[in-house]
Write a structure and sequence with these properties.
It is built from no helices and seven strands. With 71 residues, the chain is mainly β. β6 and β7 form a beta hairpin.
């Protein structure tokens, strides 16, 4: 099981997973455009520079898709 927190998020988005492996993410805005992609480092990623709003976060090519709110 994989979870992302906190939600809503302000600066750092954290990942918690049962399996300890590399997790990659793609973040899409409300229009479906890819705005960020990368790898979780130390189980977190900094998204403080994204504008406020809703985003879809896709983990490891759709192993998980989560809607988040950036504050």
């Amino acid at each position: 099981q994989i979870s992302l927190f906190p939600n809503p998020v302000q600066d750092y988005l954290y990942i918690k997973a049962d399996v300890n492996k590399a997790y990659y993410y793609q973040i899409y805005n409300a229009s479906g455009q890819l705005v960020r992609k990368g790898k979780f480092e130390n189980n977190r990623t900094n998204i403080s520079d994204l504008t406020k709003g809703f985003y879809l976060v896709r983990i490891n090519d759709a192993e998980l898709v989560v809607k988040i709110l950036k504050k």
